[in-house]
Amino acid sequence: MRGVRAGRIPAAYAASGRRAVRLALVAAAGFYLFRYGLDRPVAATYALFAAVALGGLSKIPGTGRQRAAVVLGLLPVCWLLVVIGTYLSVQTWSAVVGMLVVGFALAFAAVGGPRPAGAAPGLQLLYILPSFPPYDPASLGDRLIGTTTGLALFVAAEALIFPGPAPPPYRERAAHAAQDAAHCAALLAAPPYALTGADIRAAGEAGQALRAVTVPEAERPAGPGVRDRALAQTGLATRALLSRLTQLPAAPGDCPGPDVSAVLHAVARLATATTACLRAGPSPVAAYEELVAARAHLSASSAGPAAPGACASGSADGTAPPSVFPPAVLRRHAAVLEIADAALAMGTAADLAMRGRQASVEVPPGRFWYARTWAPLLWWHRLRGHAGRRSVLFQNSWRIAMALTAARLVAGVDTLPHGFWAMLATLTLTRTTMDATWTTIRRALAGTLAGALVTAGMLALVGADTAVYAAVLPVWMLIAYTVGPVKGVGWAQGLFTVLVALVFAQLAPTTWQLAEVRLLDVLVGSAIGAVFGLLAWPRGAHEELRYAAASLLRRAAEIVVATSASVAEGGRTAAPSGAPGHRSLQQAVILAESAYAQFQSEPTPFGGGRRGVAMPDVDWQATLMAGHHTLWGADRLSESPHTGLGPAAAESLSGLGDRVAGRMLLVSAAVDPGGDTPTAPLPLIDPALPGFAAEPSGAPRLYYATVSWLDALMTDLARIAHGGHGPEREGTTTAH
Asked: What is the DSSP string of 113-147?
């Protein structure tokens, strides 16, 4: 035989099979070493279950070497959990209290990013295991030795056996996108001052590659630290830069303006320097300062009122006093200044991402509030952002903690035989919605029943011949962890039922009644999971996503009104802001992002079509972008000098701000309607917005910059209501 031809094994089975090989080798090696080599059954149990916990139950994202590094860093946490579980298990009340506290803390650690979230279930199991008989603190040494051995073998196997190719890191994706931005900016800075269709498509693909849904989970910069926050902001700023470059209005006539070309050339150089920085090159500080100077020169040259019919050059050397710029030129200037702002944000964020607090680029306050913040305070900010009943992470943490606590109480009070299995069932079968929990439980019970029948027959036939169990265990483990993850929870529970019987039959004399106990424990654990799935936020993330998205839009509407009024009145009305930024809207964005992330992981893609816009018709990503656009635009406009707009421009801008805010409120009501919300369908496109094309006499650049920001927000709102596939609105100038 030459082996199986490439492509004959389905990819899903190949991936789970590689993981099953590593797990079977590690678990069997640790178990047999202590059980038969050293005659230490306690250490054998902990060696096996440590590998099963972090290798089977945990879903740590990344390659084998990345998972190995995560587990190695978690080793002290594993020791602490075994020690705490051992000493608290002596009394039922202390074990119950410990389960509540530890269960919540481990689940809530998901705020730290994908890796802590993926490791949490396995860490829960490592605390659950010593919480049950025998209540023997004297065996703590064997427990720690077994745990350490199992995890050490697991780390070695993950690093050396089928480690898998490493995907390109997020910073490389950002570097590629920045390189595309440099190419686009260079083309726009020189004749014919335009991009080809191929350039626009390439820029769009580079931007799409930075979206979280296209990035492997292990590579997403989701941590609370400075570098992760900065890398995530690098991606957002680069996407914004690419979008604005591809939508830059054409140069009016044959006079694009040397100041505009100078800014675009500086943008290209900064994007090139950012690419080098992200690839471990020098800081982009020189290119950053060049763009700051070019931007300031363009801003000063276009800061005055417009005169209809004038060309941007206006003089022999291509420069012109501010008073001769027509509205078309000022619109282009406003768009170029937004491009410069996005490029500056990209360069700053990239330097922070690579060098942390040692970044050379001058970090402006507001958008980069975290740059000089102490690391524990950043963690505190992240935790505080989720410390509320509207946070999906908070809900999930309390749900699983209360369910595990109840299971531990039942097991302790009723002396449930092998109560460990009941808690394991609660941990693995509880879902974020009642419907999903019930579906999972039905399949799990069917699988457990089938596995119990197989187990009973096996124990009755083999009896006390441990050699048979020892020979079958690694083969069965290989099958269980290859087939179970692919076929679903029913198969996984059935195969695992036989697996635990093979393990416990080697630790103590066992009869066919072990299968009966296993079925009873799974039934008890499932019932507890179902109860808490019903009582604790039973609708899961899709209802919270509705609420969070609507709340975000309402907060954004407040900022839009305040910022528009401040610009229209020459800065006499201050926008509600404060470090770090507009706090109420920032908090709303955090909660909406967590709800969206949880919604994506739920088994049902949508639900509750009874209320508001049906879930497939809502572009939740556009909702989040509307929040970010509101924050960035408000911060940028609040930093601009507020000069008088003139009565016509001020009236036009106030009206547009009110109209955009009103539209936000309408969309928020459609997304999450109240009991008395009118049921009339929301028009997808606002039919009457001539103000975006208006050119009030004497309007300065700040007017057009604000109009451009409001126009982009209206595009986001149209996409929200149309699921991201609506036609562009007529009469607008930008579409982000």
From this structure: -HHHHHHHHHHHHHHHGGGSSS--GGGHHHHHHHH
d(C-alpha 178, C-alpha 278), whole Å: 9
Using left for φ > 0, alpha for ψ between -120 and 50, and beta otherwise, residue 501 falls in alpha
Cβ-Cβ contacts under 8 Å for 597 (sequence gap 6 or more): 392
pLDDT tens digits along 436-479: 666 777 787 788 888 888 888 888 888 778 888 889 999 999 99
Which 3-state string (H, E, C) describes 369-433? Answer: CCCCCCHHHHHHHHHHHHCCCCCHHHHHHHHHHHHHHHHHHHHHHCCCCCHHHHHHHHHHHCCCC
Dist CA 338 CA 331 (whole Å):
11
Tell me the pLDDT tens digit for each residue of 88-110.
888 888 888 998 999 999 988 88
- 383 vs 387: CA distance, rounded Å: 6
Of 334, 379, 187, 330, nearest in space to 271 by CA: 187
Report long-range pairs for 11-16 (Cβ below 8 Å, ≥24 apart): 12/485, 12/486, 13/482, 13/483, 13/486, 16/481, 16/482, 16/483, 16/484, 16/485, 16/486
For 400-428, b/e burial (b = at least 16 CB within 10 A) is bbbbbbbbbbbbbeeebbbbbbbbbbbbb
Give the ranges where 161-224 is alpha helix by DSSP (H).
170-189, 197-208
Longest pairwise C-alpha distance within the chain: 101
CB 495 within 8 A of CB 451: yes
Q: Which tokens go with 101? A: 């506290």
pLDDT band at 721; cut points 50, 70, 90: low
Q: Provide the token pair at 18.
A: 């590689």
> Tokens at residue 297, please?
């020169």
3-state DSSP call for residue 227?
helix
Q: Over range 666-685, report the average pLDDT.
A: 68
- At 112 the three-state DSSP class reads helix
Tell the residue number behind the tokens 């919604």, with chain if given: 599
343: helix, coil or strand? helix
Run of H or E residues at 633: helix 620-639
Residue 665: both structure tokens together? 């409120």
DSSP annotation of 195 = -
Q: In the numeric block, which tokens belong to residue 564?
A: 């528009």
Q: Could you tell me if 248 and 188 are in contact, meaning their C-beta atoms sit under 8 angstroms apart? A: yes
Global confidence as pTM: 0.77
DSSP 443-478: HHHHHHHHHHHHHHHHHHHHTT-HHHHHHHHHHHHH
Shortest CA distance to 642 belongs to which of 694, 561, 701?
701
Backbone angles phi, psi at 489, to 5 degrees: -65, -35
Contact between residue 326 and residue 252 where contact means Cβ atoms under 8 Å apart = yes
